[in-house]
């Protein structure tokens, strides 16, 4: 099998890249180790920055998002039983975000790829990337019980944090920057209309909580829990009771309860792999970097990477110049580090780490109070949340 761009992974990064290349007249093959149903059901991100929504529209993948997605013009910060709304358009010159689940983004892109794009092979597991530093990189993969080879001009590893692409970059050329956090998020999906019309980020002495939504009838809520927590150890009632405590306000706001349909625990990690390119192998999305979900940046970073790659390869095909491909890693990393900083700031602003002192508690409250009382501090948060520009 032969193609111009071999794409490993059909998450948001790989699927969008295939679409962008198709629109630019460049052929690709996507290899995905899981089956279609699994990829379409995997619950993860749900906030699209304005730039991400614009890219999906321009790629011809935004129709259902514009019909069913929920435009959000702000978030609420909750601390000390107080509520403070951050108004994005007023602070950023009109920017907003879109609530539209990653599962739906993937479904839309898969349908388009199967109808109009190049091959998208499910249950095709990449085993290794070979000859990455040459002009003819290859992906060895297993599909329908047989081993095969995909010969490429370029390979893009969009295979997430646990993928194989990153391993093809020699360790001596690599630097890894990493932080793990001593807590995770217990996330639930519940069949109940969201109790607030925008996301609520709550800082509480018992830990962080987030109220978000997937649709007007489905809520997505999270609780900070100790690292290594088993989701099954929490009964539904315990979860609702704890959410209620952490979202408490001085007014008569109420949290509506409903049947919980899914429970899982997500660990929190910051991770950056540098460089994101080795010869003709490029890394994109979670394959190269992870952010804790507090800043809602993971999916949006993946989109930024593949937009940068598609633009660079199109430039190369049109002009013969490798200049943008050569700058790929540096261009992406500038935006990635801004998102790493923002996600770290949001995480340390709102979570309570084990062993936190009274002094640190007071500092956290002072940071929140500063955001609630200074337009400059609030603007910084709004700009970060609605998204840093693509390189
Ligand atoms: C549990 C969880 C919850 C999250 N929640 C949020 C959130 O609330 N907000 C937020 O902004 N972000 C969240 N994220 C992060 C966000 O979902 C990711 O940043 C985003 O999925 C990145 O997209 P990606 O395409 O780079 O990687 P992925 O979505 O991980 O896609 C990688 C794909 O590659 C496939 N693959 C892996 N190995 C191989 C192989 N060897 N061969 C072929 N295919 C392979 C995988 O099956 C997968 O389909 C969450 C992540 C996780 C894991």
UniProtKB/TrEMBL annotation:
GO MF terms held by the record: 4-hydroxybenzoate 3-monooxygenase activity; FAD binding
InterPro entries: FAD-bd, FAD/NAD-bd_sf, RIFMO-like
Signal peptide bounds: none
Top-level EC class: oxidoreductase
FAD-binding domain boundaries: 2-343
Keyword Kinase: no
Transmembrane segments: none
Gene3D superfamilies reported for this sequence: D-Amino Acid Oxidase, subunit A, domain 2 (3.30.9.10), FAD/NAD(P)-binding domain (3.50.50.60)
The UniProt record lists the keyword Nucleus: no
Record-listed E.C. numbers: 1.14.13.2
Keyword entries, A-Z: FAD, Flavoprotein, Oxidoreductase
PANTHER family: P-HYDROXYBENZOATE HYDROXYLASE, TRK SYSTEM POTASSIUM UPTAKE PROTEIN
Protein name per its UniProtKB record: p-hydroxybenzoate hydroxylase
Lineage, top ranks: Bacteria, Bacillati, Actinomycetota, Actinomycetes, Kitasatosporales
Gene that encodes it: pobA_1
């Amino acid at each position: 099998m032969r193609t111009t761009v071999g794409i490993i992974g059909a998450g948001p990064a790989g699927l969008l890249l295939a679409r962008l290349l198709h629109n630019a007249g460049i052929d690709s093959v996507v290899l995905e180790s899981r089956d279609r149903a699994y990829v379409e059901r995997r619950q993860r991100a749900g906030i699209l920055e304005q730039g991400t929504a614009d890219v999906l529209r321009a790629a011809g993948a935004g129709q259902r998002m514009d019909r069913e997605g929920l435009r959000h013009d702000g978030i609420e910060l909750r601390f000390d039983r107080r509520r403070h709304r951050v108004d994005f358009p007023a602070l950023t010159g009109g920017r907003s975000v879109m609530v539209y689940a990653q599962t739906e983004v993937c479904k839309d892109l898969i349908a388009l790829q199967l109808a109009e794009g190049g091959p998208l092979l499910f249950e095709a597991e990449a085993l290794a990337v070979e000859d990455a530093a040459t002009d003819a990189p290859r992906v060895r993969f297993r599909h329908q019980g047989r081993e095969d080879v995909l010969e490429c001009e370029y390979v893009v590893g969009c295979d997430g944090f646990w993928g194989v692409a990153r391993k093809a970059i020699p360790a001596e050329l690599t630097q890894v920057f990493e932080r793990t956090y001593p807590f995770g998020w217990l996330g639930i999906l519940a069949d109940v209309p969201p109790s607030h019309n925008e996301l609520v980020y709550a800082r509480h002495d018992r830990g962080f909580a987030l109220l978000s939504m997937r649709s007007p009838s489905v809520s997505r809520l999270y609780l900070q829990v100790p690292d290594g927590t088993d989701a099954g150890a929490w009964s539904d009632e315990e979860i609702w009771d704890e959410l209620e405590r952490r979202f408490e306000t001085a007014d008569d706001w109420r949290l509506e309860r409903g049947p919980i349909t899914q429970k899982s625990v997500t660990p929190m990690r910051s991770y950056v792999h540098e460089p994101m390119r080795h010869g003709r192998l490029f890394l994109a999305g979670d394959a190269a970097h992870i952010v804790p979900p507090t800043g809602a940046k993971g999916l949006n970073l993946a989109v930024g990477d593949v937009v940068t790659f598609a633009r660079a390869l199109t430039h190369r095909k049109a002009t013969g110049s490798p200049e943008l491909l050569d700058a790929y890693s540096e261009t992406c990393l500038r935006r990635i580090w801004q998102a790493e900083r923002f996600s770290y700031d949001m995480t340390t602003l709102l979570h309570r780490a084990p062993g936190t002192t009274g002094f640190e508690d007071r500092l956290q409250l002072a940071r929140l109070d500063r955001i609630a009382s200074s337009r400059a501090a609030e603007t910084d948060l709004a700009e970060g949340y609605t998204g840093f520009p693509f390189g």
